Amino acid sequence: MGIGDAIVLVGCLAGLVAALPALFIFLNLIFGKTTRGAAQRLQRGTLVPFFAGLVPAVILVAIATALISLGSIFQLIGFIMYLWLLTWGFTGLAAISRMIGAKLSGLTERDENPLLEQVVGAVVLTLAIAFPLVGWFVVLPLGLIVGTGATLLARFRRGEQREVVHAPVEQFTFDDTVAHQS
């Protein structure tokens, strides 16, 4: 490894540390309802989101890899599948950063500030991902899988059963409307 390789590595890490929090904040703003639901789902635990993200990730990666190896238009379809999966994964990472920021905000005695929570959570998660070896090969892959599962669970959850309250219906006759008009 020469000096040029070291400079490239440091430059890539510096770019990652600068750009990834902005991406997480952007995804939290664009997919606010989804990231809020995913962060709430992650508050209850990460085991179910892990398996909910592992199954689609393995299946979609296998299908996309097979499509890319076929060539022609199938390469484009496989590439789009990879991008779709990464979009779900990074939206899930944005939800994880939101959850981290909310937990860190709970440690202080300040007023709740959602933007500050998102920024702090995004910076903390980015620094964890940028940590050599552990961040690259443990935090990022597990975060993508858990984030994908939490995002899918939040996006495709069953709607809450709302109790519908019906107002009592009064007996209506044609004679009542004629009486109100006169």
Report the count of strand segments. Answer: 0
Helical amount among residues, as a percent range?
over 70%
- Sheet with most strands: none
Order of helices and strands: HHHHHHH
Overall 3D form: globular
SS element count, helices: 7
Q: What is the oligomeric state here?
A: single chain
Q: Distance between termini?
A: 96 Å
Rg, please?
Answer: 24 Å
Arithmetic mean pLDDT:
86
Structural class: mainly alpha
Word description of this protein:
With 182 residues, the chain is mainly alpha-helical. The chain has a domain at 49-154. Helices cover 80% and strands 0% of the residues. It has 7 helices and no strands. Helix 3 (47-70) crosses helix 6. It starts with a helix and ends with a helix.
Write out key terms for the chains shown.
182 residues, mainly alpha, 80% helix
Write the layout of secondary structure elements.
Elements: H1 3-30, H2 32-43, H3 47-70, H4 73-107, H5 114-130, H6 134-155, H7 174-181
In short:
By secondary structure, this protein is mainly α.
